[in-house]
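Hi support team,

I submitted a single chain yesterday and got back a structure, but I'm not sure I'm reading the token output correctly. Could someone confirm the output below corresponds to the sequence I sent? I've pasted both exactly as they appear in my results page.

Thanks,
R.
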Amino acid sequence: MRKVVSGLFISLDGVTESPDQWQFDHFDAEMGAALGAFIDTEDTILLGRVTYQEWAPYWPTSTDEPYASHINNTHKYVFSSTLDRVEWQNSTLVKHPLAEEINRLKGLPGKNIGVAGSPTLVRSLVQNDLLDELILMIHPIIVGRGKRLFPDRGDLKRLNLLSSQTTSTGVSILIFQPRQA
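Hi R., thanks for writing in. Yes, this is the structure output for that exact sequence:
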């Protein structure tokens, strides 16, 4: 069965919002290789509304390869209760319950299902035991403000560390798997 895998840039203080404003100083060949390996294992992408609205105007005309071709050509499922339509090529709007769609997608043949950005969606996947792997690229920076992956309130979730790597710029790439209850 396919896995749902999320990869996020995150600061030491847990901020995932607007990584384009703070992560580039630490982006190196090792991070590029890790991201390349991540996208090579997926053929479906999940997006939340905010990430979709930020990315849909940018990526169709971007020349930032190889990710531009990947994100534009891969089928995307956009989870939103407020959007009425999605216009980015290869995108499908999902309005029905999260678990129903995730279980349907996991039952289809194919590679992994990746979650691009979308920290609110990632949080919902974790809370509902629908995420199979969480890849955190922890940057040695304190952002100080912004949306955090896990806010102050939430349920206890235990994780197992599958692997860790530290890049030459000090980014820790940690791969976690939620523990089964």
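A quick pointer for reading it: The mean pLDDT is 91. Let us know if anything else looks off.

Best,
Support desk
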